[in-house]
Amino acid sequence: MQYRRFGRTNLLISLLTFGAMRIPFGDRSPEERARAEENAFLAMKRALEVGVNHFETARGYGNSEHLIGMWLPHLPVRREQLIITTKIPPTQSADEMRRYIDESCSATVGTGSRACRQMPAPTAGIACRVARSS
Q1: Which residues 6+ apart lie within 8 Å of 57 measured at CB?
Q2: What is the pLDDT of residues 41-52, one digit of tens each?
Q3: 18, 55, 61, 100: which is the annotated catalytic residue?
Q4: Does residue 61 have an active-site annotation?
Q5: pLDDT band at residue 112, thresholds of 50, 70 and 90?
Q6: CA 68 – CA 86 distance, rounded (Å)
Q7: Which of 63, 70, 100, 69 is closest to 84 using CA atoms?
């Protein structure tokens, strides 16, 4: 796997990313859902095996934030080795933005992980802030 420096940080990010948009959610039988979630978990493990260290999700991707957060303790790497990004929708206030960020990061990364919060902004492109969760 090839890596590049992430923005102005000292983080090295894999050129390939595991995108969680298609992690299963929605109307499925419990058996179908369990099978789909197991397949998604195995795909995430395989991505790690080939060197992917960046996992991308969003509030709008169904339950992918929650599932990634649930799977992290069961993966063969430490959380601090991963870069997990999540996106939030535009908000009406700074307080609402903080709440969205806190909810998304609580669901996905927990404590001790690197997190990049991306906020799609129609007029300003993508605002990104890199921080360590605490």
Answers
A1: 20, 21, 23, 64, 65, 68, 84, 85, 86, 87, 108
A2: 899 999 999 999
A3: 61
A4: yes
A5: very low
A6: 11
A7: 69
